[in-house]
TrEMBL record:
Binding site for Zn(2+) 1: 594, 597, 638, 641
Species assigned in the record: Anabaena azotica FACHB-119
Keyword Magnesium: no
Identification of the protein by name: Replication restart protein PriA
Protein family per UniProt: Belongs to the helicase family. PriA subfamily.
Keyword set, alphabetical order: ATP-binding, DNA replication, DNA-binding, Helicase, Hydrolase, Isomerase, Metal-binding, Nucleotide-binding, Primosome, Zinc
The protein's enzyme class: isomerase
Gene, per the UniProt record: priA
């Protein structure tokens, strides 16, 4: 954050303002936000005459015995507190004027209002951690002024400050220090700022000292006395551009420090401490040139590039259709125009691959990565890099939607359907897509939503607009030639295998556009639809084989792998090809199904499966509905077929990995899940090892489904699709369809054709059918009809109240009390109160109430402040707006 407060008219202007203010007695006070551990909130300060303050300025204020960074929120003519005016302390100075551009400030305010969150909490998400609290104001010389010949006339305080800075090597002092040494520091400083001789900045959080780490540098590649192993290590080092972090090299080569030490002694490599550049490390990559787009890609690109200002494009491309290439080419001309782009992705697991592609195209220095797994220092440095205003690309997860890029030209949300864009806790419980829509609107730039399986929200939103576009076709035809109808998407869809008994026949006429369109929480911008219906080079989507696990059991196969999958794994091992094994694993709560007949225990009052509950070892095993709180005891035998194999479902990666080792001892696999990717850089390392052919199989969870482009993968196995199908959530089907389609889409992306083997106990489930035939449209149509009947999003809106407390009785009573108060209100439907599916987390007991209402019912919503008053100390209430997880 380099602040150039060099408005040469500053003093004059503000002096005039003083006169004005004195005359009108306007705005003598400012409420500021202070972020101080245990004491953050709004505080009132007096505005000294010489200062002009606007909301969004960063100020320095006295706080107790300290000086703190603060943000100006509101100006007022009256002090908003019960203190004698003369006791109100004065703002010390403006550190950065207009720090929050007005559009950005507006964005933060909108988020605060829509998600019922105090502004400070929103600001905390937006700013790097600890920026306000820990930062300290500093002053330093501007380097270029050294060669400046004419030094302007300066007042004594200004001269003294300049002298102090010039006498010190680095030319950099804290403001507090200068204050001790020089009288009238403010005046002197302002003068120097005005002449552009110094700049004022906030010091990085204290934890961010330069960080040193051991690096290995290649010195000599001529083999004199290397062992084979050492030779390999040297090759890895050379391929990586001659330099790697010590830890990274150890991990990639599975070698030891002593081996490296030996190589250093022989003079092949050097090991030394280097400062880590606190941007995520990038490997040296061969530069990549733009690919020649196919027709659908060119159309999509043209659609995006034709846009001027705010608009939304849904880029609906099947897996492997080349969406990323469209992003790259849409961004390229923006950089040339001096604009920046923001690319949001669901999870950091996905960033190494994507960032490599961006870096290979645009070069390292144009790309920053911003996500919560960065250290505070990295976040700070990356954030500062954005504020420079240099045209750049920021790739990041959810919170990067707040990246303070000035001059934003485009926002891309890749895999827009992914639920990790939504934050469940802490507040604000924002959805990055919703925030991105506001941001694009406020910055007046296009937003591209990319997915092979668009969320129903985006589908409906574009569908409504599409019918508008269609109805205006006569007038807009000439300009809109690249806007495609969904019908065309269907017609271009790859031919599906012949349809089985009843379900959607691919040759049936395309369904008409969806039913009446709801108002979305975001005012619909111009929404365009751009399909990429085929894979690159017309590669086919992989055939999906469904294996009925009930039959496997009947025929005596008790392994978690069907015979078909076993054969495929065997083959993988023999041919040396590569595959992915997907396991769905989710917390402790899971549904109960019969392994003999596939029967699933469901709630008699709701259309959801019951969740398995066991609070602790020895406690009764209960089945519970998370919507209405119906409870049943876990039956011993299946109510349908009396089989004793009525079990709760769930098999984690670990269990599958054990089973693999037992049945296929020769098969090399890499586990890729949250346990094995916890360390920094582990995602990249594991993927690199896999890409280098060190293993046949990548075994993992959700993380595997998100946009990985591994061309050599021919086999995708889904161990049990059921874990996804029967989650007790109204979105379960949508999510299951998305996840399974995405994971299937990892197969056959390269030259070799792929195949998918999907194991399930309910092969007739509509989601399985839709995944099998890659049939997005029929699935969505059926799903939307159900949503509409029950008023679920995107047709109705939800707000979830989550309550928690260490005291189980207190939280239950509070929840009931709130439900009673709410039930007086006719504006919405109340579901619950019900306990959360995992009722106790970290010793807190959790209950919830779900409010369901029509989008236009907003004025009838309760007064949340009144609701909060019903919560005694110790009961925590979170208001989750548009919740995705109602568990
Ligand atoms: P998606 O993001 O839609 O799943 P990708 O962008 O990962 O698809 O593209 C799939 C593969 O096709 C990538 O390896 C990419 O480099 C390649 N590709 C994309 N567009 C083209 C093109 N126009 N010509 C050749 N190869 C392409
Ligand atoms: Zn049964
Ligand atoms: Zn129920």
């Amino acid at each position: 954050m380099y602040i150039n407060d060099n408005n040469s008219l500053g003093l004059l202007v503000s002096e005039n303002k003083d006169l004005y203010r004195a005359a009108t007695n306007a705005n003598q006070y400012v409420e500021v936000l202070v972020d101080f551990p245990g004491n953050s909130g709004l505080f009132t300060y007096r505005i000294p005459n010489q200062l002009e303050i606007k909301p969004g300025d960063i100020l320095s204020v006295p706080f107790g015995s300290q000086q703190l960074g603060a943000i100006a929120i509101r100006l007022s003519s009256q002090p908003n507190v019960d203190i004698a005016p003369e006791k109100i302390r004065a703002v010390e100075d403006v550190v950065t004027s207009g720090f929050f551009a007005s559009a950005y400030w507006e964005l933060l305010n909108r988020v605060a209002a829509y998600y019922y969150t105090p502004l400070i909490q929103v600001i905390r998400v937006a700013l790097p951690p600890g920026l306000l609290g820990r930062s300290q104001r500093r002053v330093r010389l501007i380097k270029r002024q050294k060669n400046q010949s004419s030094v302007p006339f300066l007042s004594p305080p200004a001269q003294q400050i300049l002298q102090l800075l010039q006498d010190q090597g680095a030319g950099d002092y804290s403001f507090a220090y200068l204050q001790q040494k020089v009288k009238s520091t403010y005046r002197g400083l302002r003068e120097l700022l005005r002449h552009g001789l110094v700049e004022s900045y906030l010091e990085p959080p204290r934890t961010t000292k330069p960080k040193l780490q051991k690096a290995v540098i290649l010195i000599d590649t001529i083999d004199r006395d290397l062992t084979t192993r050492q030779r390999e290590i040297l090759d890895v080092l050379r391929r990586s551009g001659g330099e790697l972090w010590h830890s990274e090299l150890l991990q990639i080569c599975s070698t030891s420090s002593s081996t490296l030490k030996a190589m250093e002694q022989k003079g092949y490599i050097a090991i030394e401490e280097r400062e880590i550049l606190r941007k995520e490390q990038a490997q040296v990559l061969d530069l990549d040139i733009p690919k020649i787009l196919n027709l659908a890609q060119s159309n999509a690109l043209a659609t995006i590039q034709k846009l001027e200002g705010f608009a939304e494009v849904l880029l609906h491309g099947v897996t492997g259709s080349g969406k990323t290439e469209v992003y790259l080419q849409a961004i390229a001309p923006l950089l040339a125009q001096g604009k920046s782009a923001l690319v949001l992705v669901p999870e950091i697991g996905l960033t190494p691959q994507l960032t490599d592609r961006f870096r290979a195209r645009f070069g390292n220095n144009k790309i920053s990565v911003y996500h919560s797994a960065l250290s505070d220092g990295e976040r700070y440095d990356t954030w500062r890099q954005m504020l420079t205003g240099d045209p750049q690309i920021v790739i990041g997860t959810r919170s990067a939607v707040f990246a303070p890029l000035p001059n934003l030209g485009l926002i891309i949300l890749d895999e827009e359907h992914d639920s990790s864009f939504k934050q469940d806790s802490p507040i604000p419980t924002y959805h990055a897509r919703t925030v991105a829509q506001w941001r694009a609107e406020l910055e007046n730039c296009p937003l591209v939503l990319g997915s092979a399986t668009p969320s129903l929200d985006s589908w409906v939103s574009v569908n409504s607009q599409q019918s508008i576009v269609n109805s205006q076709q006569s007038t807009v035809n000439s300009q809109q030639s690249t806007v495609h109808s969904q019908q065309e998407y269907l017609e271009n869809s790859p031919p599906s295998p012949p349809s089985p008994s009843s379900p959607p026949s691919p040759s049936s006429p395309p369904s008409p556009p969806s039913p009446p369109i709801p108002q979305s929480p975001v005012p619909s911008p111009q929404s365009l639809y751009s399909p990429l219906p085929e894979r690159i080079n017309s590669r086919p989507l992989p055939p999906v084989e469904i294996v009925d696990m009930r039959q496997e059991l009947q025929q005596g196969n008790r392994s978690i792998f069907s015979r078909s999958l076993q054969e495929a794994l065997q083959q993988l091992q023999q041919t040396g090809q590569q595959g992915i094994l997907f396991i769905h694993r989710r917390g402790h709560s899971t549904f109960v199904s019969c392994r003999s007949c596939g029967y699933v225990m469901e709630c008699p009052h709701c259309d959801v499966s019951l969740a398995y509950h066991q609070t602790e070892e020895g406690a009764p095993q209960l089945l519970r509905c998370h919507y209405c709180n119906y409870v049943a005891v876990h039956p011993k035998n299946c109510p349908e077929c009396s089989s004793p194999y009525l079990k709760f479902f769930g098999s984690g990666t670990q269990r599958v990995a054990q089973e693999l080792s037992r049945q296929f001892p020769e098969l090399k696999y890499i586990r890729f899940d949250s346990d094995t990717t916890r360390n920094k850089g582990a995602h990249r390392t594991l993927l690199t090892r896999f890409a280098n052919g060190e293993a046949n199989l990548l075994v993992g969870t959700q993380m595997l489904t998100k946009g990985l482009d591994l061309p050599q993968v021919t086999l995708v196995g889904v161990v049990a699709a059921d874990g996804l199908l029967n989650l007790s959530d109204y979105r379960a089907s949508e999510r299951a369809f998305q996840t399974l389609t995405q994971v299937a889409g990892r197969a056959g992306r390269g030259d070799d054709p792929g195949r998918v083997i999907m194991q399930t106990y309910t092969p007739e489930h509509p989601v399985i059918e839709a995944v099998r035939y890659h049939d997005y449209e029929s699935f969505v149509q059926a799903e939307l009809e159900q949503r509409q009947v029950l008023n679920y999003p995107p047709y109705g809106r939800l707000i979830l109240l989550r309550l928690s407390s260490f005291d189980p009785i207190q939280v239950q009573n509070t929840t009931s009390a709130i439900a009673t108060v709410l039930s007086d209100n006719p504006g919405f439907e109340i579901l619950g109160p019900a306990p959360a599916s995992v009722m106790r987390v970290a010793n807190r007991y959790r209950w919830q109430i779900l409010l369901k209402f029509a989008p236009d019912a907003l004025p009838h919503l309760p007064d949340w402040e009144e609701i909060r008053l019903l919560c005694p100390d110790g009961v925590n209430l979170t208001i989750d707006v548009d919740p995705l997880n109602i568990m």
